[in-house]
Amino acid sequence: MRIRDLHRRLGCTVVIVAHDMKVAHSCQRTIAQRAGGIVEDVRR
To answer: Which of 16, 23, 26, 40 is 20 to 30 A from 6, comparing alpha carbons?
Structure first.
């Protein structure tokens, strides 16, 4: 089962922590942090 399928089936939020931008770009939303604060919040 893919993570996106899990999200649809259960209707829950899935949090992925990744340093690989390919993984991040496959997500509907990305939030970038630096020094403990949010520096970017992008919805696709």
So the answer is: 40
Per-residue CA distances from 1 to 5, 15, 19, 34, 41 (Å): 6, 16, 23, 32, 27
30 - beta bridge partners? 42
The answer, yes or no, to whether residue 4 has pLDDT greater than 90, is: no
pLDDT in tens, 5-27: 888 898 888 899 999 999 999 88
| Domain range enclosing 40 | 17-44
Tell me how far apart the alpha carbons of residues 38 and 19 are, in angstroms, rounded to a whole number.
15
